[in-house]
Amino acid sequence: ATECKAAAGGSLTPYNAQLLSACREFNINTSPVGVDYGTKKSYIKETLEHVLRQLAVSSRVEDVPAVVLVTLLQTIIRISASQFGYKSLMTVNDALVATLRCAASTDDGVVLHAM
To answer: Which of 59, 68, 70, 78 is spaced 20 to 30 Å from 106 by Cα?
Structure first.
């Protein structure tokens, strides 16, 4: 579907709008401190992987809006408060590289959340 949109002259976004919307909703409904430390692995694993992969893709694109990166980083921060989230944070390919790219951003909000 995205290939058809691009072929028709539409613009592609380097992020999944549905995932970003879910992240916004999650961030609104989850304390900034994050999820409970004992949250089950089954709730954390797949979500964390998807969000980290999205950050890896989005952080490579120069003109991606800062709000996209901040939203993804806030979600990662909240999820990684759990025991499993913390332990698996950097096991996803490109997670560290994506975080470092965000830390080198020119946007203060992105840098703050990447640290």
So the answer is: 78
DSSP characters for 12-61? PPSS-HHHHHHHHHHHHHS-TT-S-TT--HHHHHHHHHHHHHHHHHHTT-
Tell me the torsion sign for CA atoms 104, 108, 114, 115.
Answer: positive
Range of the domain at 83: 15-114
Residue 32 lies in a domain: yes
Q: Give the C-alpha separation, 53 to 1, whole Å.
A: 20
C-alpha 41/C-alpha 87 separation (Å) is 11
Check whether 28 has a pLDDT greater than 50. yes
Q: What is the pTM of this model?
A: 0.84
